[in-house]
Amino acid sequence: MGYPDYLSFPFFGYSFLTLLLPAIFILRRWMEIKTLFRVVPILQTFFEIIIEVGIIYATGNIQSAFAGLFILTIISAALVSNLAGTLGFASLVSVSYAFVIWFGLSINGEPGSAARALQTIFSTQDAAFYNIFLHILTFYLVAFISGYLVERLRHKDLQLATASQALRLAKLDTEDILRHLNSGLLTIDPHLNVIFFNRTAEEILELNEADVRGKNIRQVFAARMPQLTANLIEVLQTCRHSPRNEIEIVGRSGKRLPLGISTSILKDDSAQIRGVIAIFQDLTETKKMEDKIRIADRLAAVGELSAAIAHEIRNPLAAISGSVEVLHRELNLEGENRRLMELIVKESSRLNNILSDFLLYARSNRVVFSRVELCRLISDVFEIVKRHNSYYPEIVLNLTSPESYVYIFGDEDKLKQIMLNLLVNACEAIGKKSGNVTVGIDVGEDRAVTVYVADDGPGIEKSHIDRVFDPFFSTKKDGTGLGLAIVQRLSESLNIDLSIRTEPGAGTTFVLGFSHIPVEANSTGRLKTSTFSQIRS
Questions:
Q1: Of 456, 304, 334, nearest in space to 394 by CA
Q2: Which pTM does this prediction carry?
């Protein structure tokens, strides 16, 4: 059966409208015009129905083989509508199909043909009735099935999208938590390949995640971290957890680093071993703190015992020293005897000074806080230092302060002893050469005070920096090694942050931080320059 040529245009139009729907779905990925994408599919469906009515009418009406095009329209409508909307389009299609059949049967030019056509359609004795009924039933069945399936797919798609988003967020949260732990986190698979390496692990082990992830631990760890490699392999081979262990690694600079490490087996739901997880921390600061506590405890015990012994020595020493001085004045000794007598007097005095310093270090008197004006206190200490045997006229003492009056709360006697010991130490470092000793006061925005005691002496050797506050450690010929130890002990009792900056050949600066002590300041005497006073002998 052939069809007339004029049908080619409607078929091309129908093909265009059919292809327009997938084009709309594609454009939705790049365009956000929601109203356009809602209206266009509805208009497309209406135009499809109109074209399909024309095609069916032109190709035999009730005998047309193209009634199935309505089914395609219903399915495409289901893709852009819900179940109710799809059934609505099925109703429109059914009415359109019944209308085209009625119109085709009634258009013969005879009077009453439209009524007879309508009667034919609703007559159960005529084949047209069953044709229309079966087609309409098919339209509604296809609409219901396609609408229901599309809604189910949309519901499942929404559930999947929600689950995917929740999974993605959970994964991101978990990775963020693990990656930003303050402890190093390392996991390996059963083949000893690294599968996770967090940020802290990078900092502690001095390795980049990109350089180790997916690689064998023997390849990346064995050279500098043999104990870490052996620990991970042992846990994997024995399948036993290692709750806490201490190992050592070597940094890129060659410095040994103590690590506290805990390792455990990583298993899946079926109890199959997936690898090993290791959590570790840098114990360097912890070890330093332990050493400080241990030294402090030892020194406290030794100090109590030594103070008692020093008291017992000092009493007879005072009697001996007094007796020797009397003999020295009354006896007219000459030659070797006179030199020996002067040596006894000198050494007795030196021994008495050592005992005085030692008692000052060992004593733990109660701290009495009061309001102390720093500039006046330092000026008083300058006057005392000028009369000390470590001071020479070539040394210039300077005090710099942004304010004329700087007040803190502290024990004035102990603060004076701290400043005296630091200034004497600075003068001894400069010696008989010309030089400068500067005490600088800095007042922060929060009124926290910092005091700097700087000299331009020879500085301190790097090998001696860690020991400068140790009791009885001294590089000076006649030094007792107690001056800086006393400074540290008094600073601890006053909650002063004490630190040291030094460079061989560039002098030494001691920094006293009073950030934990309430501060007041009288700004009525604020100076225009940074120098408050300069004292010369």
A1: 456
A2: 0.44
